[in-house]
Amino acid sequence: MTNPDLPAPTDTSLLGAHVRGNGTTFGLWAPRATRVELALVAADRSQYNVDMTRSTDGVWSVHVPGVGPEQRYGFRVHGDWDPEKGKRFNPAKLLLDPYARAITGGVDYSGPILDHTAESDYLPDLTDSFRAVPLSVVVADSPAPTPIAEPRPLADTVLYELHVKGYTQLHPAVPEHLRGTYAGLAYPAVTQHLVNLGVTAVELLPVHHFVSEPFLIGRGLSNYWGYNTLGFFAPHAAYCSVGTTGDQVREFKEMVSALHEAGIEVILDVVYNHTGEGGHEGPTLAFRGIDHQGYYRLTDDLRNDYDVTGCGNSVDTSMPGVLRMVVDSLRYWVTEMGVDGFRFDLVTTLLRDEQHHVDQNHPFKQALREDPVLSKVKIIAEPWDMGPYGYQVGAFGNGWSEWNDRFRGFTRDFWRGNIGGVQELGQRLSGSPDIFDHDRRPISSSVNFVTAHDGFTLRDLVTYDVKHNAANGESNRDGSDDNRSWNCGYEGETDDPEIKALRHRQTKNMMATLVLASGVPMITAGDELGRTQGGNNNAYCQDSPISWVHWDTQEEWHDLTTLTRALLTLRTDCAVFRPRKFRHGEELVDAEGDGLGRKDLAWFNGYSGEMTGDDWADGGRRTLGMYVATSDPDTEQGDAFCVWVHAGVDPVDVRLPGGFWADKYTVLAHTGNDGELPTEPVAAESTLTIPGRTVVVMRAQ
User: Fold this and answer.
1) Is residue 345 among the annotated active site residues?
2) CA-CA distance, 245 to 235, in Å (whole number)?
C-alpha cells in the first residue's frame, strides 16, 4: 500500500550536498518529518547539529558556511513513531543521505542500528546509532570522464559481465596495491586483455555503495556480488585503492576514462528494486528512517513490507519522489560519472503500480524514454522479479534489450542432449523472434547468455551435475537446483584425458553458440579462461578465491580462449553476424534489383537441401545448418556463411549447399580438434564429415 499524497520534490538539484561559495548546501526530501537536523561529524565522531528548514514540497535544506569536501555528515529525522501507519521516525538513528556522492565507514551489526527495541518492534530504540553506521561525505564537483570516441550500436556490442574486485584480485600483472580496485580494472594489462578478446562493453556487477546482510556477517562472510544497495549515487568505497572520503569518485571516473580510451563502454548493473536495509525488522540506516512508507512498498497494515524481490523489501517507484530519485541517480551516473548504460536488476519491481501490479506503461519507463540523456544510453532489463506476474521476458518494447533466459536454458539443454529436435535451436540462433520479433523491435532486443554471475561458470557446467555450495554455510540448500549441466561422466575435476577433452569441446560448443547467434552476446568474465567456482552456483557471499578470476588457467584453457577471440573477431569483421533487424528468409537482390536466389537466412538439413516441415518436427534430429548472407559483397566483408551445429555423439555427413548458395566453402573456425576438419576449400555439393559434438563455421564463396 502506497501513500500517493506525499508531495514530490519540485527541484531535486537541491538534494544532497553541494559545495557552493564559502560553504556547502544540504538538502533532504522528508515530506512527513516534523523536524530534520543536519549532523556534521568529525573524524573522531563528535557531532555538530544544525536545524534545516522545510519547504512546501517536503524538502529540508540549509547552507553551512565553512563546510567543504571530505566533510562527513548524516541526518536526524524527527516525526511520529507509529509503525502501524508506516511512520518510523527516530532521531536517535543517524541516517545516510540518499543523494550522497560518497559514503565512508561500515555497519556495526552489534550496535544500536535498529529503530525499534529488541523486545518489541512497536517501541522505538532511543540509543544513538552514530558510532555504528556509515556516514555520507561531501564531494566537490569535478570533470566528467573522457567520453568514448565511437559509441557502438547495441547490435555491435559484445557484453562482458565482470566483478570489479574479483576480476583483478589475482591478476599477476596488476600491482598488488591496485588489485581488486577501480584502478586495477583500468590497468593497461587488464584493458588490453579485453581489447584482444573482442569485448566492446563491460557490464559491471553492482558498484553503487552496498552493505552486507547481518546473517552473512554472522557467518564470517560478506555480500560479494553487491546486490544490496545503500547509496544510489555513491561508488562502492571498498573498490577504491586510496581512500573513502571522496577518492572513490575520482578513481571511478579515471577507470571509466581508461576503459573509454581503450574503446570499451561501461554498463552498470544497478539495483534500484530494494535496499540494504532489508525487511521491516532490519536496520535503519537511511530510507526507513527518512520515510518508511514513502520509500518502500508495504502491505495493507503498513507494518510489513510487500516484498517482490526476495530480499526483504521493495522500493516503491509508484511514489513520485522515489521515482525522481531513481531517475536522478541514473542521470548522475551518465552525465557526471561517464557510464554508457545500465542493466536493471529485477526491473519488473520498478514497473509496479500503487496496487503492486506490473504496468508496462509505468512512469518509470516513460521517464527513461522521454529523458534527453537516458533515452540515448543502453538500457538492458533483467525482465522479471519474484512477485505475481513478475516474469516479463519479451514485454518491454522498443528502447529496451532484455536478458534472454530462454537462450540460456535451451543452449545448456541442447549440448547436454536433453532436448528434442532442433526447432528451438533455429529460434535461438536467429535472435529469438518467437519472443522479440513484434512491434518493430530490433534484433538487439535479445541479450543472449549461457552463464552469468548467478549460477555455474561455463567450465562448471561441464564439470558438475549438482551444486556444491557448502562454503556458503547453508548446508547446500541455497542456489538453484535447475542447472541443466552435465559433468561429462565424472563429478568434479579429473585427470582423465577423454573426459577433459570432452569438457573442453562442450565449453567451446556453448561459447560458439553464444557468439554466433543473432542478438547481443554476453560473456561472463573468466569463462574464456576456464574459470571455475568449484561447483558453487550461488557464490554471492564468496569474496574469496572461489569467486575471483584465476589467470593461471590460461595455458590449460588456451583452446577456449583462442576460439572465443576468433569468433568475436569474425563477428566484428563480418556484419552478417551483427544484423540490425530480424531476418525472415527473404531472397537477396543485386544492385539492379534482380534476385540472387540465395536468402538472407536459410536452414539446411544436411542431406537434401533446406529444412522441411518433417525435419523441423523430427525430435531425434541433432544437426542443423544455418546459412546467413547479405546482398552487398562489395562493401561488407564475408557476405555469406554456413554454420553447422551438430550435437550428436557420432560424426555426421552433410552435403554442402550448391548452386546459387555457393561454389565452395572454407572452414574458418570449429570446436573440434586439430586435423578433424579440412583446412583447404571444399566444393559445394560435396560431403563434409562433421565430428560428434561440433560447431563448424564456413565461409560461402
Assistant:
1) yes
2) 11
Q: Please pick, among 340, 345, 460, 615, the residue that the annotation labels catalytic.
A: 345
Q: What is the CA radius of gyration of the chain?
A: 27
| Cα→Cα distances 275→130, 296, 583, Å | 20, 9, 42
C-alpha 490/C-alpha 566 separation (Å) is: 30
Classify residue 240 as exposed, middle or buried by CB count within 10 Å of its CB (0-12, 13-18, 19+).
Answer: buried
Cβ-count burial of 388 within 10 angstroms (0-12 exposed, 13-18 middle, 19+ buried)? exposed
Contact 530, 503 (CB under 8 A): no
C-alpha cell at 424: 528451438
Contacts of 300 by beta carbon, 8 Å cutoff, 6+ apart: 1
Q: In this predicted model, what pLDDT tens digit does every residue of 494-545 receive, in sequence order?
A: 999 999 999 999 999 999 999 999 999 999 999 999 999 999 999 999 999 9
Q: Which of 265, 382, 527, 639 is catalytic?
A: 382
Contacts of 257 (CB under 8 A, 6+ apart): 145, 146, 186, 338
Which amino acid, residue 345? D
Total count of residues recorded for the chain: 701
Residue from 356, 206, 210 nearest 277 by CA: 210
Would strands 59-65 and 53-54 be described as parallel, antiparallel, or unpaired? antiparallel
CB atoms near residue 66 (< 10 Å) = 9
CB burial of residue 321 (10 Å; 0-12, 13-18, 19+)? buried
Number of continuous H segments (helices) and E segments (strands) in the chain: 15, 31
Closest by Cα among 461, 432, 437 to 448: 432
The reply to whether 600 belongs to the active site is no
Write the DSSP string, 376-437: GSEEEE----SSTT---TT-S-TT-EEEEHHHHHHHHHHHHT-S-SSHHHHHHHTT-HHHH-
* pLDDT, tens only, 90-141: 999 999 999 999 999 999 999 999 999 988 888 999 999 999 999 999 999 9
Q: How far apart are CA 141 and CA 336, in angstroms?
A: 9
The DSSP bridge partners found for residue 268 are 204, 342
